[in-house]
Amino acid sequence: MGCGAGVTAVTVALNGCSRVCALAISPAAVENAGLNAVRHGVSDRVTVLRSDLLSGIPGSRGCRDF
Question: What does the pLDDT read at residue 3?
Fold first, then answer.
């Protein structure tokens, strides 16, 4: 939550996480994090969602549902 530019999401994807869910309420942060995932070649493992805490996650059960 509060992924900002996606630094943490990209880093954990680069270091072996097979699925990463990055959340932010700011549309600009969501766009920036998504662009950074593409730039670093991990967009296949990083999903960026606009969300107010967990409200934007399908099924509201957490990132395993994305």
Answer: 85
